[in-house]
């Protein structure tokens, strides 16, 4: 094994943050239980924030971002994993203040590591990444709430984003009628590839459903990935006993609504976190993602790039102009 490995390093100089692919020595890595050779990593909005110096994500620099990684175990001090095992690491502190998946190697605590489930490759795991895990948890919670396909339509916001696109694809795969909300002009992709039956614009949705304290009960449930008045409109348009999950704040971190949908229709608002979930629950969701939830066209939802393409990909994500999720092949 070489004494160095390639990684996208973020360095700070007088308040300016610069990214560059560098050769990093193994001695610079955090010393943890499991050393993993990264085969693939996915690129997320949080990674773009980290690379741009957002102290709410990453406090100390220099730093290697990348909150998702999949690869093979090189060594495990505790013996909990054996050399060559295929594994996934998402969430916890990876890529935030622990050097992450934008390097060819990561060193992490054993409690962060999940064995790759049967039916999933390392590449497919990173086609999902944290976004896919979040989508899986969101769908799981709707099912747990009793929202079977016969109960009615499910509305999904941010349908071209990571969580929204995968949620739409999973719901369609398991028999739900999905209405997708999107601000981008790619209805053919959302319908023909992701499987939504209908696509509506953000403006159309809010003008119809976020006007009064309660709106027409057109949806059995919802998955919101953007926040703000979209989430407010979802809550107001749920059928009796409906539920909506929320996991994002791209539109806004504020929520202006009333108590009436909750006390008159018995609706539920379910917060979704995929970062600090117990490992056993993550393993359960990954098993669904490898089997029942797995879309047939998973690889078509991503664009594969090299580590050298990462700086440009991160800029595209920050601008909000990415058409597909990026997956890094190391």
Automatic annotation (TrEMBL):
Residues 15-328 form the Enoyl reductase (ER) domain. Pfam families: ADH_N, ADH_zinc_N. It comes from the Bacteria. One of its GO terms (molecular function) is acryloyl-CoA reductase (NADPH) activity. This is Oxidoreductase. It comes from Sphingobacterium athyrii. The lineage of its organism: Bacteria, Pseudomonadati, Bacteroidota, Sphingobacteriia, Sphingobacteriales.
């Amino acid at each position: 094994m070489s004494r160095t490995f390639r990684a996208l390093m973020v360095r700070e100089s007088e308040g300016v943050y610069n990214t560059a692919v560098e050769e990093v020595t193994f001695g610079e890595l955090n010393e943890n239980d499991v050393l993993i050779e990264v085969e693939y990593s996915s690129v997320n909005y949080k990674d773009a924030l980290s690379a741009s110096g957002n102290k709410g994500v990453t406090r100390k620099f220099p730093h290697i971002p990348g909150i998702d990684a999949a690869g093979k175990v090189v060594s495990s001090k505790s013996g909990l994993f054996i050399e060559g095992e295929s594994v996934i690491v998402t969430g916890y502190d990876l890529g935030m203040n622990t050097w992450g998946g934008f390097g060819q190697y990561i060193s992490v605590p054993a409690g962060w590591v999940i064995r790759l489930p049967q039916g999933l490759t390392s590449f497919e795991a990173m086609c999902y990444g944290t976004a896919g895990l979040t989508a899986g948890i969101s769908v799981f919670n709707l099912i747990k709430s009793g929202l079977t396909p016969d109960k009615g339509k499910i509305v999904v916001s941010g349908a071209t984003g990571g969580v929204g696109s995968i949620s739409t694809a999973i719901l369609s795969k398991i028999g739900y009628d999905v209405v997708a909300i999107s601000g981008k002009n790619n209805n053919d992709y959302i319908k023909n590839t992701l499987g939504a039956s209908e696509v509506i614009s953000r403006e159309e949705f809010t003008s119809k459903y976020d006007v009064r304290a309660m709106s027409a009960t057109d949806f059995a449930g919802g998955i919101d990935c953007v926040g703000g008045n979209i989430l407010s409109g979802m809550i107001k348009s749920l059928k009796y006993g409906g539920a909506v999950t929320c996991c994002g704040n791209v539109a806004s971190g504020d929520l202006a609504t009333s108590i009436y949908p909750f006390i008159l229709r018995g609706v539920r608002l379910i917060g979704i976190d995929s970062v600090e979930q117990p490992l056993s629950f993550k393993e359960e969701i990954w098993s669904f993602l490898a089997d029942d939830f797995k879309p047939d066209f998973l690889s078509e939802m991503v664009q594969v790039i090299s580590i050298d393409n990462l700086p440009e990909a991160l800029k595209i994500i920050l601008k909000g102009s990415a058409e597909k999720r990026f997956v890094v092949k190391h």
